[in-house]
Amino acid sequence: MDSDGFYIALLVVDCGKKWGIMESGGNVLFRGVSSINLDDKGRLAVPARYRTILSDCCEGQLVVTVGLDKCLLLYPLPEFEEIERKLVKLPALNKQAKRLQRLLVGHASECELDGQGRFLIPEPLRRFAGLEKRLALVGQGNKFEIWNEEQWETNRDAWIEEELAEAGGELPPELGSLSL
After folding, report:
1. Structural domain range at position 19
2. What total of structural domains would you count in the chain?
3. What is the pLDDT of residues 96-146, one digit of tens each?
């Protein structure tokens, strides 16, 4: 039970092919934004709350690749392998499928958590995403996005303004039932 009197039902999954924190409904859960520093060698330290999970469930084996929004995507290896299997089954003559394969699989780099919960982001990927000292690690359910912190904040603010402008300052009706 948390300080507000709510019960939190979480369990750590014994991986195999699945990983992460799961709610009682069975959904993978990596969420939240963490501000972190990239060290001088290009290593990122994963927040402590995720280290044990990643170590237990994928033995610290990760894959980092490019994202379509000029950020990086960070997956536990088993999760990326599942996505990779789906990508390689896409039609070879489909231009969009081929581009997606080239981007996600072609830029994929395996990495491993060290004893301090850090991993090295390869220099070409750091350059692609404009990663410097300050980063934002953004949980996205089955993966993380890694952003230049300033770019993350700029994009986040622009997305909010864009959504409000498109909706005339109000949420679309299909989102009206959400309790935010």
Report:
1. 10-167
2. 1
3. 999 999 999 999 999 999 999 999 999 999 999 999 999 999 999 889 999
The answer to whether 57 touches 15, Cβ cutoff 8 Å, is yes
Which amino acid makes up residue 103?
Answer: L
Please return the burial class of 58, using the count of CB atoms within 10 Å of its CB with bins 0-12, 13-18 and 19+: buried
Answer yes or no: is 56 within a domain: yes
Gap between the Cα atoms of 38 and 171, Å rounded: 36
**The 21-23 sheet, strands edge to edge:** 10-12, 21-23, 28-29
Number of residues that make up the chain: 180
Tokens of 59: 């033995």
Question: What is the average pLDDT across 85-103?
Answer: 92
Cβ neighbours around 168 below 10 Å, total: 8
pTM over 0.85: no
CATH of the domain at 71: 3.40.1550.20
Query: Backbone phi, then psi, for 177, in 5-degree steps?
Result: -80, -10
Say if residues 76 and 57 touch (Cβ distance below 8 Å): yes
Q: Which residue has the tokens 């972190």?
A: 36
